[in-house]
Amino acid sequence: MAGSDITKDLIYDSVAPDDFESMLELDRYNDRSNAFDKIIAATHDHFWNPLDPKYIDFSTPFDMENEMLVPEEMIASMQTTYVSEALSDWKTRVRFVNQSVLRSFSSILHGEQGALNLSASLCHVLKDQGAQEYAANQTREEARHVTAFALYIKARWGRPVACGPALKDLLVEIIGAPQVYKKIVGMQMLVEGLAMGAFATFYANIRDPLGKRLLQLVMTDEAFHHKFGKIWAERTIPHLTAEEHATIEDWAAHCFQTLLFNLVAPTQQLDLYAAFGLDADRVIAEMAQIMTDDQRRETMREQTNIFRVLVKTLLKAGVITERTRAFYATYVDLDELHREGDQMVGDDIAAEGVRYLRAINFRGRPANDGLIAAE
């Protein structure tokens, strides 16, 4: 067991990242779990190559100078009187909205790089061959996401912007954690859940057909990645002691709170305001007036709200108990989430994406109809 990990099922047993000798144990080779076989076998169903235009063509044009990538209502700072009046010229408004989207897509790119490094790190510590093979598959898929988002950003803006300090610190903390439970809760459940919510929101609103296709293709992979964390929760949470549950619950709350209060906070976009000659203090002050707890609660009623997706992920996994219920209930109706089914936002989009990929990958030969999206 690596570090102070909490392991309730041998398929998630782990060793220290430098303990390669444990990987050479003879009994290990005859002891492979089949828990991940279904999602491993389905990888060919949602294969895509970002460098092949038959899947996605990054030369597809979009008028970045005259057309907003998303409606300006999606940009929180544009809802302030100060920013809206200061950016009265149409082309300036377009540029501000599109530069805001660049910040979002850059965060996504950095998050995908974090997921790539994390899944690669799991290959070094997970002892079960099935779990290790799954992690290797995810590493491959996260690598194509990094390539794809880098290509999209290059096509639309030229280059990404730096990772925001809050997201950067959290990614470093999750990837560097020696405990597998911290990696799975932090990345596979929360960051991946956040990504699915963000992808679904942008998919529904983005006006760029290239961006829309990119988001759908990535979601075909992410739906499966989220499943890895769900299997962990099903095999771990019911067997925790009260102390262990509290440890995992507190870690989840820490990650959630970091994302909720920092990921889209105006303090994370000071460079954007400076580039448009805006007084950052005025932007932050007016944003504070409109982004109240009541407003957060109202926006979390939307099915695709990224933070609502995170709370649902934790609630359905059994991570949230009475200890932290009040914290989450400040922003979302937990009873309403309980009554909802287990289907996650983006699953339908991912399923349609898999069908699109099957039409390419299995043209002229039968496809496997056993799995459309992560079950």
Essential attributes:
375 residues, mainly alpha, 16 helices, 61% helix, disordered C terminus
Biggest sheet details? none
Name the beta content range: under 5%
Category from helices, strands and their pairing: mainly alpha
What overall form do the CA principal axes indicate? globular
Terminus-to-terminus distance: 29 Å
Q: Using only CA atoms, what is the Rg? A: 21 Å
> How many β-strands, per DSSP?
0
Along the chain, the helix and strand elements come as HHHHHHHHHHHHHHHH
Q: Uncertain regions: pLDDT < 50 for 5+ in a row?
A: 369-375
Mean pLDDT: 89
Helix content: 55-70%
The helix count comes to 16
Q: How would you characterize the overall build of this protein?
A:
With 375 residues, this protein is an all-alpha fold. It contains 16 helices and no strands. It has helices at residues 26-29, 37-41, 81-86, 90-125, 129-156, 165-176, 180-205, 209-236, 242-262, 270-275, 280-290, 293-299, 306-316, 322-329, 334-339, 347-361. Helix 4 packs antiparallel against helix 7 (180-205) and helix 5 packs antiparallel against helix 8 (209-236). The relative contact order is 0.14. Residues 369-375 have low confidence and may be disordered.
